[in-house]
Amino acid sequence: MKKYTFTEKKDTRSGFGAGMHVLGQQNPNVVALCADLVGSLKLEPFIKENPERFVQCGISEANMIGISAGLTIGGKIPFATTFANFATGRVYDQIRQSVAYSNKNVKICASHAGLTLGEDGATHQILEDLGMMKMLPGMTVINPCDYNQTKAATIAIADYEGPVYLRFGRPVIPVFTDADQKFEIGKAWMVNEGTDVSIFATGHMVWEAIQAGEILEAEGINAEIINIHTIKPLDEEAILKSVEKTGCAVTAEEHNRLGGLGDSVAQVLVKNKLVPQEYVAVNDSFGESGTPAQLMEKYGLTAKDIVAAAKRAIARK
Amino acid sequence: MEIEQLEKVASQVRRDIVRMVHGCQSGHPGGSLGCTELLVALYFERLKLKEQDGKPVFDMDGKDEDLFFLSNGHISPVWYSVLSRRGYFPKEEMATFRKLNSRLQGHPTTHEHLEGIRIASGSLGQGMSVAIGAALAKKLNNDKGLVYVLMGDGEQQEGQVWEAATFAPHHQVDNLVAFIDLNGQQIDGPTVKVMNNLDLGKKYEAFGWEVISIEEGNDMAAVVKGLYEAKSRLGHGRPIMVLLHTGMGFGVDFMMGSHKWHGVAPNDEQLAAALAQLEETLGDY
Q1: What ipTM is given for this predicted complex?
Q2: Percent share of chain B, pLDDT over 70
Q3: Long-range pairs of B275-278 with CB within 8 A, sequence gap ≥ 24
């Protein structure tokens, strides 16, 4: 098992803010929009240096999506930012018509995704956003794993022509990827090569998968861990290559088990190579208030849950 | 263009509208007929468009030209006719309206790459936000082009419209002219009965807009005058709202003033009766 260490923990939303800061200096067409959550989205450095390229929309997310679509008509690259719940479900029709169907170069950047928003509870958490966004034709869906990768993804999507959903979160988690990495949209990242089980993880769950891999290794099980930072387009080749070798799969995501990464991987397996698959995901329920760690524990999203799923998958081979 | 010439274009556009809707037995003739003067006046008189050899040149960004957005996308027939008659695409294509494999979808879309269209519309309430975004982009680009957007009066019932209405004056979007087509009808009946919008002009004024009225929205001279007035008031920190009073179904006597022709196609006899009232001026498609 390849060793991953970290010296600090940071939130992925700060990676987004750092990426925006870089884009503010590098790309004059980038415009940031926000619906009264500037601090939460870590946009202050961008705004300080580029006040003319920041659009405060107030608490009106539908209008923000429409304005973003309009800004692309004129060659701007709008980054529309708010909490994931309000960036997707609240404005699904606006995204569908004015962004996806109209094929506009809008970047929808969503913080506080998943359960780990924590104490605010289910109204502010969202576990359905990956599903909603991946069902939109033409939408690219990205869910990076740590601060550095979120920063790299933020910078990368500015150069990609087309609508993008970029998802990140609030809790501080280990920073274990390279600071100067290149982010390749649609290309899965091999975290650890292994032979006994494939663990496909996304977002915050990648670090849990790494810890699970270490536990499994101690028990003599050699796990292959792949970071699926891009849910759509999905790197089908990497998934199939891995299960050809291991013969079984675990998917791990901070999302409803319906409609997320697990279902995307299952489609690939059903079409191409039937192998046992186990889901580590929220079991079709809403969240609740609690600390991120408590919620991960209660809803079955920890390293030990991945370990158990891996053993179930191996047993079904 | 002289008023008389514009009126001739409008007559042909009305023929196109009823023929298109009849051709596929589907679509929205009422609101289309009511907005004919506005769209003809915009495209043949008011909008500064990029042209080459007398024909408009379309690019999605629309830099250094005026832009028009149709928020109430169901009145697509009038827009398609005007775009085609203005030279954006061949008039013969109107025969494909709402038919399989057509670029002329029931509601406008960029998906089929139809020249002249920059955003999909159909689900109501989104167009003004988009127009505001396009107007902001023009300001960022130091582009002196103006942005126009048309909404329906029933559409004012959508909440997003009021998000946009709040935003535009706050951000001093003063290169934007919005229109509300006040025909007083929506699918389920007169607007006052379905959901009374009550004093839209006062509402927009209270939100910080400069509001003007075109009382005779089906009088070409009045519409052209109103458009010049709207433009003259731009650039002073406030967006302009034009209350455009029209008659649903205007120009075809049996369609006029009734919500029943919001989304119904004429049969063969009705088509003949409608065409008998509308002079063919530019040649049917």
Answers
A1: 0.96
A2: 100
A3: B275/B15, B275/B18, B275/B19, B277/B251, B277/B252, B277/B253, B278/B11, B278/B14, B278/B15, B278/B18, B278/B251, B278/B252
- What is the rounded distance in angstroms from the CA atom of residue A99 to the CA atom of residue A109? 13
Name the residue type at position A47.
I
Q: How far apart are CA A47 and CA A33, in angstroms?
A: 10
Query: Residues A126-165, buried b or exposed e (16+ Cβ, 10 A)?
Result: bbbbbbbbbebeebbbbbbbbbbbbbbbbbbbbebebbbb
Active site residues of A: 61
What's the burial of B139, exposed, middle or buried (CB within 10 Å: 0-12/13-18/19+)? middle
A51 touches chain B (CB under 8 A): no
Residue A200: both structure tokens together: 């496909």
Nearest to B255 by CA among B25, B20, B13, B30: B30
Size (chain B), residues:
285
Distance from CA of B39 to the nearest CA of A (A): 21
Q: How far is CA A268 from CA A130, A203, A255, B177, in A?
A: 17, 20, 19, 50
Q: How far is A77 from chain B (nearest CA, A)?
A: 10
Instruction: Give the model confidence (pLDDT) of B170-221 as tens digits.
Output: 999 999 999 999 999 999 999 999 999 999 999 999 999 999 999 999 999 9
A192-205 pLDDT, tens digit per residue, is: 999 999 999 999 99
SS3 content of chain B, % helix, strand, coil (to 5): 45, 15, 40
pTM for the full predicted model: 0.97
- Residues 6 or more apart in contact with residue B93 via CB below 8 angstroms: B84, B102, B103, B104, B285
**A119 shares contact with chain B (CB less than 8 Å):** no
Q: Per the structure block, which two tokens stand in for B81?
A: 């006719």
DSSP-derived secondary structure letter, A90: G
Contact A49, A96 (CB under 8 A): no
Query: Around A51, how many Cα atoms within 13 Å sit in the side-chain half-sphere?
Result: 1
Distance between start and end Cα atoms, chain B: 22
Measured CA to CA, the distance from residue A257 to residue A301 in angstroms comes to: 11
Half-sphere exposure of A129 (CA within 13 A, CB side): 34
Instruction: Provide the β-strand partners of residue A164.
Output: A107, A140
Query: Whole-angstrom distance between the N-terminal and C-terminal Cα of chain A?
Result: 22
How far A61 CA lies from chain B's nearest CA (Å)? 9
DSSP H or E segment with residue A269: helix A261-272
Q: Does A62 touch chain B (CB under 8 A)?
A: yes
A221: left (phi over 0), alpha (psi -120 to 50) or beta: beta
The minimal CB distance from A103 to the residues B110, B123, B133 is found for B110
How many CA atoms, within 13 angstroms, populate the side-chain half-sphere of residue A56? 13
A22 Cβ contact partners less than 8 Å away, ≥ 6 residues apart? A151, A154, A155
Q: Output the pLDDT for position B259.
A: 84
- Which distant-in-sequence residues (6+ apart) come within 8 Å of B40 by Cβ? B6, B9, B10, B13, B82, B220
What's the one-letter identity of residue A42? Answer: K
Give strand ranges (E) for chain B.
51-52, 55-56, 67-70, 147-152, 176-182, 185-186, 189-190, 210-214, 240-245
